[in-house]
Amino acid sequence: MQKLQEVDPEIAALILAEEVRQWSKLRLIPSENYASAAVMAATGSVLTNKYSEGYAGKRYYEGQQYIDAIESLCIERAKHLFGMAHANVQPYSGSVANLAVYMAVLQPGDTVMGMSLPHGGHLTHGWNVSATGKLYRSVQYGVSKDTELLDYDAIFDLAVKERPKMIIAGATAYPRVIDFAAFATIAKEIGAVLVADVAHISGLIVGGAHPSPAGLANIVCTTTHKTLRGPRGGMILCDEPWAKAVDKAVFPGLQGGPHDNTTAALAVALKEAGADSFRAYAHQIVANARTMAERLAEHGFRLVTGGTDNHLVLMDTTTVGAPGKPVAQALDRAGIVTNANTVPFDPRKPFDPSGVRLGTPAVTSRGMKEPEMRQIADWIAGAVQARNDETKLAKLADDVREFCDAFPPPGYPPGYSSGHPVPLI
Ligand code: DSN
User: Fold this and answer.
1) Which residue from 49, 177, 219, 259 puts its CA 20 to 30 A from 380's CA?
2) pLDDT per residue over 377-416, tens digit each?
């Protein structure tokens, strides 16, 4: 940080301000987390200087003595942790990983079936504005209007009618367990390839807090920085028959040189995720989300599906008088960071939706447990009520900052506090 301050004080000051923000706010965006100091050290290492197109033992540039060892170690750890035969750890992001899977399995124009974005899927699950919805014939399933749960009978009927070549099971805003066995039965019935996109829940899976798709899905893709708590990136795991096609789709199909610094950081994160303490962490994420959901419901929020089984809570805030965007903005001013989100069958537009999505991975990384979740839910209710009262919101933000000082996140040095920040690097 000292070097950065000398060379570019403007950027250094902005990074420091972001460090303080991440320390002094309750970060409840369910796809965000705090990477450890070890993960960040690898991310910021000399590996950023290297090019290594290709795979271990077959590279297009020389000087790969250490890169090959790093990538191979990362792959072995990924395979072991997820219980899959093959891993590709090069995707730059979850979206690129997903696109590589499309390239490996489908030809343009082939039919793919994924969860609709407004019901909790992802852009790359075939939504119409994404390349995946433009280059392929996309059929979308959603949740039941009555229960807001995935209706596996309806998904089966749709699959039999449309006969997709590939089915994607996975979500970004679904608060319940995904039944990968039910998806496997559906895919088997029509001879489709089953892809599990576990980006949100991969940390829960390796920690034993959500059923694994290993042995059920042919291909599993994930980001590496959400509940898994690694660096920003993507990863694909698969059965042996898909290994070659997946590797070819990632490189040279979609990418050039892998980001070796990210690969090393992912290897570190996978080592961390194999520890017993990570299992406890994954289960605490779920216990915390349940506690927060229960308390929010007591405060009168309508929760999509009535609660949660995983790391996230989706609430319809129109029942307490305001749609998601102004509520998320007021919460942010009170030091509680969430995101506005559509709820299933939302009559409002995606940028001004009816709901707010929140989750517990980051606050659980800070060591917060059930009592803290109840306190946070009470603050959320207070902030929503006071959403037009800037004095009250500012006072809440002060209380939140003081509270956060007692729960140092991973990655921050001893002695750090919101009043006396110490640069992280
Ligand atoms: N942006 C991610 C999320 O917030 O869920 C999905 O890619």
Assistant:
1) 177
2) 999 999 999 999 999 999 999 999 999 999 999 999 888 8
Residue 215 exposed, middle or buried by CB count within 10 Å (0-12, 13-18, 19+): exposed
CA 93 vs CA 49, 98, 101, 194, 236: distances in Å: 19, 9, 13, 20, 10
Parse the chain into domains and list their residue ranges. 40-273, 286-405
Place of tokens 């590939």: 166
Give the architecture (CATH level 2) of 40-273: 3-Layer(aba) Sandwich (3.40)
Predicted model pTM: 0.97
Task: Decide if 51 is catalytic.
Answer: yes
Catalytic position from the list 51, 55, 92, 152: 51
Ligand 1 contact via 227 beta carbon (within 6 Å) = no
Rg of the Cα atoms in the chain? 22
226 with 67: CB under 8 angstroms? no
Quick one: DSSP state of residue 263? H
Cα of 19 vs centre of ligand 1, distance in Å, is 21
Per CATH, the architecture of 286-405 is what?
A: Alpha-Beta Complex (3.90)
- The residue whose CB lies within 8 Å of the most ligand 1 atoms, and thus the one to mutate among 29, 92, 174, 200, is 200
CA nearest neighbour of 397 among 319, 329, 300? 329
Return the pLDDT at 418: 84
Annotated active-site residue 271? The verdict is no
